[in-house]
Amino acid sequence: MIGRRGIGWFSVLFMVFSGFGGGVILFCQSNDDCLACHADKELKSEAGKSVQVEGETYKLSVHGQAGLACTDCHADLAPVRDFPHAIPLQTVDCSVCHDRAGREFQASVHAQAGHELGQENAVRCSDCHGTHDIRPSDDLDSPVFALNLPATCEKCHLSKAITAKGPVFVRLYRESIHFKALQKSGLTMSANCAHCHGAHETKRVSDSSSLVSRKNIIQTCGTCHVGIRRDYLEGVHGKDYVKGIKDVPVCTDCHSEHDIFSPQDLRSKVYATRIAELCVSCHDNVALSRQYGFLTSRMKTYSETFHGTASKFGETRVANCASCHGYHDIRASSDPLSSINPANLPKTCGRCHPGASRRFAESPIHVLPTEVTPSRYRASHTVKKIYILVIVLIISTMVIFVAADLLRRLLEKTKHG
After folding, report:
1. What is the mean pLDDT of residues 274-282?
2. CA-CA distance, 210 to 220, in Å (whole number)?
3. Is 69 exposed, middle or buried (0-12, 13-18, 19+ CB in 10 A)?
4. What is the distance between the alpha carbons of residues 352 and 366, in angstroms, rounded to a whole number?
5. Which terminus of the chain is less hemmed in, N or C, by CB atoms within 10 Å?
6. What are phi and psi of 76, to 5 degrees?
7. C-beta of residue 73 within 8 angstroms of C-beta of residue 63
8. Predicted pLDDT of residue 371
9. Cα angle 294-296-297, degrees, rounded to a multiple of 5
10. Torsion angle, CA of 384/385/391/395, rounded to 10 degrees?
């Protein structure tokens, strides 16, 4: 492939040597020759579209800075002698210089979408990068600069390119923690469209080679969240993921896709009071429990505890699934590093209950009332019974007191007319 700076000389040499055959030496047009017409703001194509080119704008572009001539891109004009030239011109082939990007694009969903519609160039390089004003991707004014990329993608994905999930799904990204970090905090390393879907190599989610397919999503998210990826892969979910088990939860199952919210956001699927509901979507699934051999009734047994009851009423400081089992590094209770390993339970419970003893930590949690053996958990079983009895007595006393007071007031009202 010929370098970008060498294409102009190639065009000149081509014209020189091809001119020898006709006995005339021809030279391709210079940029100034082209701008003699195209600098005119009133110049339009037969379709009525402006074909003006701002000379200074082009000079400031990445191509202008590299010294490329108009005919380096519009190669079909190189042998033209008579102007104005015929229209329309051939579509510019950017892959002549950008061969790698060209190969990636041809394998992408954008190129495939064009083929399916019978349009070879349904999506063009210029749709994302611009035409004569192309800037480097790290230029603040470039449409593919990190801060500008979401708006660039939305130009199509909110109107022309309607996906299966629709424009509402696309727009959800603007509510996410990633977008807020990008726009409000200016953190350009925060995930944008290209970070997750790729730039020129964007694939359908159903494509196993896609960056956001279940097969690759851990690696994609882990590119930024390196520590979390390590913890996940060391846990029970990650080990099953590596084995290729498709039912195991991945990042998007727990955190969603475009609408990823902070765990402190009430809308987040991993908000403190919603974690139990999220976990039992799998762990109370009878079909999955039979296939993989884990216990069900996790929500029932959690809800009947003080922790579950308090969480149901909106208490965020009370223990939930992640408080005891961990977040990403969830391990089996038999694992010495597990937070619910018998040897580690006093420390785990001690996060909320300072000074928790081993006996305190051994109190049953995920057991149905019929599964509790009083001889083994006599103390905790007795305390629970007394606790329930006291609650019943207090509530009954309050009801009786209120009823008696109402009766007294009615009798006095009747007595005094």
Report:
1. 96
2. 10
3. buried
4. 18
5. C
6. -70, -10
7. yes
8. 57
9. 155
10. 160
Q: Write down the pLDDT at residue 268.
A: 97
Q: How far apart are CA 38 and CA 272, in angstroms?
A: 61
Exposed e or buried b for every residue in 301-312, given b needs 16+ CB within 10 A? Answer: bbeebebbebbe
Q: Please check whether residue 366 is in contact with residue 360, taking contact to mean a CB–CB distance below 8 angstroms.
A: no
User: Residue 48 has what pLDDT?
Assistant: 85
Q: What is the token pair recorded at 63?
A: 């191509």
Token output for 128: 């994302």
Contacts 24+ apart (CB under 8 A), 17-24: 18/79
Kindly report the backbone phi and psi dihedral angles of residue 349, in degrees, each rounded to the nearest multiple of 5, phi listed first.
Answer: -65, -30
The encoded tokens of residue 16 equal: 């020189």
Long-range contacts of the stretch 370-378 (C-beta < 8 A, 24+): none
Q: How many Å apart are CA 128 and CA 284, to the nearest integer?
A: 46
Rounded distance between C-alpha atoms, residue 38 and residue 27, angstroms: 20
Backbone φ, ψ for residue 347 (5° rounding) = -70, -40
Give the model's confidence band at 82: pLDDT under 50 very low, under 70 low, under 90 confident, else very high. Answer: confident
List, as own/partner pairs, every contact residues 69-78 make where C-beta atoms lie below 8 angstroms and the sequence separation is at least 24, other chains included: 69/7, 69/8, 69/11, 69/28, 69/30, 69/31, 70/29, 70/31, 70/34, 71/8, 71/11, 71/28, 71/29, 72/4, 72/7, 72/8, 72/11, 75/11, 77/28, 77/29, 78/11, 78/14, 78/15, 78/28
Query: Position 392: which residue type?
Result: V
As beta bridge partners, residue 50 has 44
Q: In this structure, what token pair is assigned to residue 250?
A: 């991945």
